[in-house]
Amino acid sequence: MMRGHKRSVLRCFTVRSASFGEGHVYDRRMPSADEILQRMRAIQERREEAIRPLLALLAERSQLLKKLEELKEPYGRAYVMAEEGGWTPEELAALGADEPVKRPRRRKRTAKKPAANAPETGSPAAAVPAQGPAPAQDAPVGTGSSD
């Protein structure tokens, strides 16, 4: 009877675990470090295989988002040109053209500035005489004569 009892006790320690793979039977002995590493590598390989499609799509998505960002400004310019050509926002929307998120920057029209090397004519500053002592003309330097 001892033998039958011993077998039933051993069956109590038999465990099926999904984490070690289907049908793995725990046999009451401690796995070696190599066995643990082997199991860990198998689990890690399955995890890596599972993430590869996501990583490929993330890379493609990143490229597409960058391309979309590059198109925002030209799209805005084209949309404004269509509006200036007589299209209303409602008509453009009916055609599938959404209002742009980024409209082109409008340049402020300012008075033209003269070129840096061009002489200033008609400038109010040119009519004001220079202030300070007038330079001596024809006076020899160091003669000691003062008028």
TrEMBL record:
Biased composition (Low complexity): 113-147
Region called Disordered, residue ranges: 89-147
Compositionally biased intervals (Basic residues): 103-112
Source superkingdom: Bacteria
This protein's name: Uncharacterized protein
Organism of this sequence: Streptomyces thermogriseus
